[in-house]
Every structure is written in C-alpha cells, then in structure tokens.
Amino acid sequence: MAARIDESPTPYHAVATAVRELEAAGFSDAAPGETPAVGSQYLRRGGALVAWTVAEHHNAGSPARVVGAHTDSPNLRIKPQPDAGSGPWRQLGVEIYGGALLNSWLDRDLGLAGRVVVRSADGPTTRLVRDNRPLLRIPQLAIHLDREINDKGLLLNRQRHMAPIWAIGDGPSFGSYLAELAEVDESDVVSYDVMAHDTTPSALTGLDEQFLAAPRIDNLLSCFVGVDALLAASSAPGSSIPMLCLFDHEEVGSVSTAGAASPLLGDVLDRIGAALGGDLESRAASRAASLVVSADGAHATHPNYADRHEPDHQIAVNAGPVLKINANQRYATDAETAAVFTLACEAAEVPMQRFVNRTDLACGSTIGPISAGQLGIPVVDAGCAQLAMHSAREMAGSHDPAMFLAALTVLLSA
After folding, report:
1. Among 52, 149, 390, 409, which lies 20 to 30 A Cα-Cα from 231?
2. Are 69 and 247 in contact (CB under 8 A)?
C-alpha cells in the first residue's frame, strides 16, 4: 500500500497507477463506442477511472456491485500565474484545494506533480509530470514573533500565509521550470494542473509497525483496496458484475465531469447494459438489485480529543472496517445496505465497527449520497478508520486494509 500511495501524488497519477495494475491483469481500455459484451475493461477520464468485468453468464438484467472511492485529497494547487515573492524571496502562488488542515503543510518538504497540456502536431497532448525533490517549503513564523500562539492558537490566512518559498534571488520562472520538467519548450506549454505534495515516503510506524503514516490515505487507501477487490472478484465473477469507480473532486463537492455528480458511472452502466442487449426494463431491474459501496476513510476516536466523538460509538484502528451511518443522509447507509455489508464482513470473518457522528457536531459526507441520488442504486458507506484526516500526512492502522479488502471481495464476488 505504501509504495502505491507514494507513486500517486495526484489524482492523475493515482489513475495511472491503477491502470498499470489493471492492464497487467488483462484489462483493456474501453473507448467510447467500443464496449465488448464480455471481458474486463476500464475507462479513464482525467483523475477518474471506471473498471469492470462482464462474464459469459451475465446478462442485461445482472446487477452491479460497485466499489466507489475518490482519488483527490486536500492540498495546495499552483495558480495560473504563480510567480510571486516578497523582497528577495521567490514564492509560488497557490490556491487551497478542499478542506485542508493548513498547519500540516508548514515546515514540510514539498514536491510538485500534476499534468501539463503541451502543443503537438496532432493537437494538445497531456503529460504527467512529477518532481519529488524537496522544492517548496512554508516556514512557520518563529515563536519569538508570535508569543501568544500556544495560548491563542495558530491563525493562517490562505492568501498571505500559505505561499511556499522555492528560491531566493533571480532565477527561472515557474513556466520555464515546468517546461523543462515536461521536456518541451516553454512556448509549447499550453496549460497545467499542478499541485504540491509531501515528499516524505510513506512508512509503517509505531510499536510492531501497527500504523501506516502516509499522505493521501484519504482516500488512496480505499482506491487501491478497491483495485485489489476488483481483481480478486474478476477471477471468478458471481451473479453480479464487479465494478470499481474512482472519482475525482470529492473534496470540493463532486460537481465536475470526473466527479460523482457527473453521469460517468451511469453512462458506463448503460453502455454495459446496451452491449448485453438490454432495454429500459432490464436497466431498471439491474439498478434496483445493484449496490454501491462508498469506500472512504472513517474517523477513529482520537485519544487526545475523545470528547469530540460519539461516546457510545468508539472507533479504533486495526479493529476492522467501519460502517458509517448518518440519519441526515450525510452517509447513504440504510438498514438494508447495512445488513448487506454486515453479512459480507461476517462471511469474510473480519470484525466490523459502526460509526455515528457526535450529534452536536456537523458530519462530513462522501460520494455515497451523491451516487445514490444520481443512480438510484442503494449505497452503503464504509471504510478504514484513520486519524489526522485532511492533514498533509495522515495515519491509519496497518492491518485494516487487508480486512477491508476481504469484505469488499466478498461483496464484489456475490
């Protein structure tokens, strides 16, 4: 898991990592208009990916079992005209993406990665770029100049305090740096989506390596467990069509061509049904019997802030998958989908926990409610417990991914 996370500093790299693993297992790229009736295919769209396996015994009314996750995480995104600075310091202008824990990006070695669109004879071409050198740093103000910080807390202004330093004195612009990274002339760089990432390698930590410390655990852990579950289920599919859908832009609302609010997954389901000779009735029958597992990180009970958690629903790492429930539909789990997930954990012989948010605190959300509303397919929200969610570097249990994988494999193989 650690190596795959380190290979995936952006949503685009995460999709590329997943595609390499799928292709190694025999999956092929299903371009629009080329959906075979039987076989293992995938479709990628920027930072999103859908993959599935249709077996000989499947038909247009066969239900789908889908693991849904998201490839994006809160971070710092480079602005279109980023060259900035104060005095001799050269800095990069950044925009905060999603609900980042801003303080976690301070005093940290940061690299750059993303995608660059360049000119070519055949039209614009997209290239993935990654520079894992410690290029950027956002130094925290010394305590001598902020004596009250430990009593009144750290207050960070997104515009004034989060611009990273990357050089001093004269030097190349960000545009020329990016052109060199993409191995093109600067005039050939048309546009880019580039972001900062933590360069510290992921690691197993704690006594007996009980923990995983890594960037983007939320939600790459679920993404790659989902890839493994699909591969396992595809070796011997059951009556359902096993599928994986990795969306982008969950952290900013999912409203995009690659987000859960897009028709991406619904279109693929329709393509599969059409390839199997389906009609409107078979489509309705398939969706009614289908299930989406919204796989995303769950809040472990923080030992230093136990009062911020529901006292009767304590969640631990390395204690099994977490079923997430919210009466106000911030999670899409209901009694019927909860039962399906509970029985899958029993069949996989793994423990299961139930998370409910403290009633007087606002609850986060996932792709679950959005997927339910877009597709009309029952959804269950579940995931692995973790701490430091939305930090530049997060923490989870090192034993939980295997237990979550066992449960998801049972679900996708049904």
Report:
1. 390
2. yes
Domain boundary among 198, 231, 264: 198
pLDDT digits (tens, 9 = 90+) for 378-400: 999 999 999 999 999 999 999 99
Handedness of CA 63, 245, 248, 156 (dihedral sign): positive
pLDDT in tens, 299-351: 999 999 999 999 999 999 999 999 999 999 999 999 999 999 999 999 999 99
In a domain, 249, yes or no: yes
Q: Is the pLDDT of residue 115 over 90?
A: yes
The 3-state secondary structure of 326-358 reads CCCCCCCCCHHHHHHHHHHHHHHCCCCEEEECC
Residues with Cβ within 8 Å of residue 211, at least 6 apart in sequence:
204, 205, 317, 395, 396, 397, 398
The distance from CA 108 to its chain's CA centroid, rounded to whole angstroms, is: 22
Pairing verdict, β 48-54 and 203-205: unpaired
Who contacts 270 (Cβ-Cβ below 8 Å, separation ≥6)? 283
Strand order through the sheet with 394-397:
203-205, 211-214, 394-397, 385-387, 298-299
Final residue before a domain boundary, out of 149, 172, 198: 198
Whether 308 and 404 map to the same domain: the answer is yes
pTM attached to this predicted model: 0.96
Q: What is the reported pLDDT for 3?
A: 95
Average pLDDT, the chain: 96
